Amino acid sequence: MFESLQEKLEFSLKKFRGQATITAENTEEAMQDIRRALLDADVNYQVAKEFVETVKQKALGTEVKGKLTPDQLIVKLVHEELKETMGNKNSELHFASHPPTIILVAGLQGSGKTTFCAKLAKNLRKKGRQPLLVACDIHRPAAILQLKQLGEQIKIPVFSEENKTAVDISSNSISYAKKFARDVIIVDTAGRLTIDEEMMKEVEDIAKAINPTETLFVCDAMIGQDAVNTAKAFNDSLSLTGVVLTKLDGDTRGGAALSVLKVVGKPIKFVGIGEKVDDIEPFHPERIASRILGMGDILTLVERAEREMDEKKASELEEKIKKNQYTFDDFLDHIDTIKKMGSIRDLVGMIPGMDKVMRNSKAEIDNSAFVKVEAIIHSMTKKERTNPKIINGSRRQRIARGSGSSIQEVNKLLKQFEEMQKIMKNVALGKKSRIFQSFQRMMG
Fold first, then answer.
1. pLDDT in tens, 419-437
2. pTM score, whole prediction
3. Complete domains list, the chain, with CATH
4. Tell me, what DSSP letter sits at residue 94?
5. I need a surface site. Which of 25, 43, 124, 276 has the fewest CB within 10 A?
6. Judging by DSSP bridges, how do beta strands 268-272 and 280-282 pair with one another?
């Protein structure tokens, strides 16, 4: 995410490297580049203008002290302003003091609204809530069917009624929720191709009837300023409490994320990072700002890992690593966990400095990189996966034929696995001084 913006900002900030002081001249040149980078990323013109002016004024009014260099100071100021532009800290959902909490979800057709409702329901259940999904898109039968299928998939009830208006369905869902002790109601409303009076009137009537605790607008981050303008139109009619950006894992330029708060006046509360029902995260401005500047996002990476890792299994695995009993079966489990965490390209972007390394190497990284590895491992016998040392020449030929690989590819995987075993054992035993040497050997 934000690859293009990150690259352009990095180029702009290079203007200060090697400079002894911050002057009006070098600041003006860099700020022009930053403004162009923001506009290219589809950031609202006024937001980009204010952003650049604020950073410029702070830069010229700040004395470079101690070991801090001009380029480090500018990066710090840009990072702070990015956070400020996006809201400084994450904005959490509000819950009613007397249940049920009612969350009204609105948006255009194709924005991922119905899927978001299911994602939010599953996310809230993990936190101990008992959500109820409500199907109020009576204009598109496929939307009701989609919500029911998603509800069945995540084992969360869906309330719907035939031959009733959307207002009646939403109102009746409250009695149903109270009767069956559901403390959060998530109302999926009709999405249309464009904003029209009929759609806005219906969703306004629903809001008046159920008096929602939260009113969230779901928009596609990939359409940039159009998403922000549409959110503003909905806010004028509905008084939104927050915005949800979907498809943030796609080829988004970042304009919507950087413009929503300033233009609409409402915070981004959640982001969609994939198509699975687990692919939803709270929006953290400080983390996104760090990623835009190539500083990574270790906190989100750790949170995703913790979400997918079974604590008991992790403890057992640590013991196996210490005893040098880590096998190819354990490796397959690890691959499965990594794939659940999201796209490899996205995960690499969370490691500080790795985005730049990958750009410089021109390497393409995606989850398909695991396909060949998994094929080779699955072509091994149970005994070979447990003890790779027994894999001799004839076994390597058989594994290569079975996986559609070359003997060289099989040899490479076996060598890398051996090096990985050493690294993991060193980490488990706390021998950090050897880790980097082993890593270098493994990477060739």
1. 877 766 665 555 544 444 4
2. 0.70
3. 3-86 (1.20.120.140), 101-295 (3.40.50.300), 300-443 (1.10.260.30)
4. P
5. 25
6. antiparallel
